[in-house]
Amino acid sequence: METLIGQSPSGAAPSARGPAPSAAELIKDVGLANFRKDVIEASQQVPVIVDFWAPWCGPCKQLGPALEKAVLAAAGAVRLAKIDVDQNPEIAQQMRIQSIPAVYAFFQGQPVDGFTGAVPDSQVKTFVERLIKLSGGGASPIEEALDFAKAAIAEGRPEEAEGAYAEVLQAEPQHPHALAGLAKLAVARGALDEADEFLAAVAEDKQGDAEVASARSALALAREAENVGDLGPLEAAVAANPADHQARLDLAIGLHAAGRNEASLDHLLEIVKRDRKWNDEAARKQLVKLFEALGFDDPLAIEGRRRLSSILFS
After folding, report:
1. Tens of pLDDT along 129-149?
2. Cis peptide bond prior to 59, omega within 30° of 0
3. Which domains does the chain have, with CATH numbers?
4. Strand order in the sheet with 110-116
């Protein structure tokens, strides 16, 4: 398949930003001589992040690589100017820098945002995304590739989705949404051990990410379904005795594995309606896993949560 990083979500044509600039173009050491050119003038086109740092500053050594990584991932939507305050005290004084690391963002010649101190990578990423939106820029190439993958899955093209996720991981090896997406695709084709490996590769601080939780729930449901077996006897058992909650729960698990999510949801809600406390609220807990596996914005999950609330609070 064609390279997606740097293309539009459709994969049919290059992004309006064109080929991604080189690292040397995106990240520059700036001093008094080139401040106007590489910050003020450059910010007329895209936001320029100015990182005030010094070689002796420990937190600067943490923040600098995170800024560089986020700027490179944005592929030209923002740029980074690094200013050594020891070598450029005039600029630091003009900007009234009191402590470092200090970060300012310029757009159209004016400072528009900033922060001080070392912050987590996730906050740096959010900062960069905010600047891109402020400047009217679109999604980053990584976001475009992730959107392409989701669209490919929805349209029944899992191989193309896998390729898009793989390209994201080439640019950002532990991207949680790409790993979660690959895990879900592995679950869909029954490669549960492979899905486990993808989820194990997610960084510890990203384990609570909603996409990762969704993939983890999808895997848990698939593991449970391995023990269900043929659905025929379970359907017969529920038809013969609607109060057989265990048979109904097993049936719901099997229906989800078969892709019949609406029927699975109906049976789980029926258990909650009949006996919400049964087996330590097993049906409600199963519903939570199903909602997570479907995704927060899935229409069936939204409707299911509404129906569950109606039962619980009636």
Report:
1. 889 888 876 566 788 899 899
2. no
3. 1-159+166-173 (3.40.30.10), 178-226 (no CATH), 231-312 (1.25.40.10)
4. 27-29, 79-84, 48-53, 102-107, 110-116
Contact present, 306 and 267 (Cβ < 8 Å): no
Active site members: 57, 60
Q: What is the pLDDT of residues 37-72, one digit of tens each?
A: 999 999 998 999 999 999 999 999 999 999 999 999
The secondary structure of the chain, three-state, reads CCCCCCECCCCCCECCCCCCCCHHHHEEECCCCCHHHHHHHHHHCCCEEEEEECCCCHHHHHHHHHHHHHHHHHCCCCEEEEEECCCCHHHHHHCCCCCCCEEEEEECCEEEEEEECCCCHHHHHHHHHHHHHHCCCCCCHHHHHHHHHHHHHHCCCHHHHHHHHHHHHHHCCCCHHHHHHHHHHHHHCCCHHHHHHHHHCCCHHHCCCHHHHHHHHHHHHHHHHCCCCCHHHHHHHHHHCCCCHHHHHHHHHHHHHCCCHHHHHHHHHHHHHHHCCHHHHHHHHHHHHHHHHHCCCCHHHHHHHHHHHHHHCC
**Rounded to two decimals, what is the model's pTM?**
0.58
